[in-house]
Amino acid sequence: MTEASNKLRRLGLAAVFVLAASGAAAQLQEFSTGQRNLACGSPATIGDGWPTATPESVGLDGARLCGIAARLATINANVHAVAIVRRGTLVFEQYFPGYDEPWGMGGGRHEFDATTKHDMRSVSKSVISLLVGTAIDRELIKSVDEPVVKFFPDYSAVKSPGWDNITLRHLLTMSSGIQWDENRAWKDPQNDEPHLGSEADPYRYVLSKPIAAPPDTVWNYNGGGTDLLGNIIERVSGQSLEAFAREALFAPLGISDWEWMKYRNERVAPAVGLRLRPRDAAKIGQLVLNKGAWGDRQIISDKWIEQSVTPRFQAIGYFGGLFYYGKQWWMGRTLSGDRDVKWIAAMGLGGQRIFIVPELDLVVVTTSGLYSNPRQGQAALDILANFIIPSVRDNYNAR
Question: Is the pTM of this model over 0.70?
Answer without folding.
Answer: yes
